[in-house]
């Protein structure tokens, strides 16, 4: 309990109000958050074999979920934010632009002023990468980026780093391969930047046309442009600890996306180290074969 209080105190003394991108976090910040997450996990209700103990850390607080309707569909993020808030004793409401006064012409700024007036935190996901920054510039309460277009997804990165610590006990020294759509996949953008804070430089494996944009390449980042049918071969040469696969973000570009399809199946897995971790932010479409779900290296549902 004393450790938990100390950690909470550190987080409360954290001088940043918003959570907009992974760039704003130091390695220390991330380690503190991972430590706190570990201590809060028993209160998350995820372990169904244990009786859930509610924790009143957010009692009386209201979270507003601002997810752009129709354009930025979501299952995990839209579900896990309110679940976490409610597990912590707070409550949530959904703001839907299409039924709001924005349809009468109310500006984004005025809308934010009003929403922040009657909530304690705003969680924002929008196709326009700048939306969350505008909201944060006007909001009187903290704003959390839950995915801004094809730019970043910082809370997914915090979760991914937490998953790595749980599996390997460390992040430093891990060999990480990011695979698939490195151009439009926001989760890999923030992950590569987050890993850099621990001295880890990822290797990208992608088809021509879906390369990592320059702004997300860290100094030691390397990329292998391959025919995605050779994904297994490329991974067997690399022997990574972590394979972080991503979905081809078909909705983010026009034209044929099927030519980029790839699959990680049992055959690919047989070429990987025994203690590797297969990660994916989900949703998976066809890039993770169902036949690998039961392999103990597959941690994407964890
Ligand atoms: C991702 C997202 O929305 O960026 N999912 C998530 O939030 N965990 C990944 C994706 O859509 O491919």
Structural class, from secondary structure content? alpha/beta
- Principal-axes geometry comes out as globular
- Ligands, deduplicated: N-carbamoyl-L-aspartate
Indicate the mean pLDDT: 94
Integer-rounded radius of gyration = 20 Å
Q: Total helix count?
A: 9
Spans of 5+ residues with little confidence (pLDDT < 50)?
none
How far apart the termini lie comes to 26 Å
Give the spatial strand order of the biggest sheet.
Answer: 7-6-5-8-9
User: What proportion strand?
Assistant: 5-15%
Oligomer: single chain
* Tally of strands: 9
The main pleated sheet reads as:
5 strands, parallel
> What sequence of helices (H) and strands (E) makes up the elements?
HHEHEHEHEHEHEEHEHE
Helical percent range?
A: 25-40%
Please describe what this structure looks like.
This protein is α/β, with parallel strands linked by helices and about 300 residues long. It has nine helices and nine strands. It has helices spanning about 1-10, 25-40, 75-85, 110-115, 130-140, 155-170, 185-195, 230-240, 265-270; strands spanning about 60-65, 90-95, 120-125, 145-150, 175-180, 205, 220-225, 240-245, 275-280. Strands 7-6-5-8-9 form a five-stranded parallel β-sheet, sandwiched between helices. Strands 2-1-3-4 form a four-stranded parallel β-sheet, sandwiched between helices. Helix 5 links the parallel strand 3 and strand 4. Helix 1 (about 1-10) packs across helix 2 and helix 2 crosses helix 6 (about 155-170). The relative contact order is 0.10. The structure holds N-carbamoyl-L-aspartate. N-carbamoyl-L-aspartate binds next to helix 3 and helix 7.
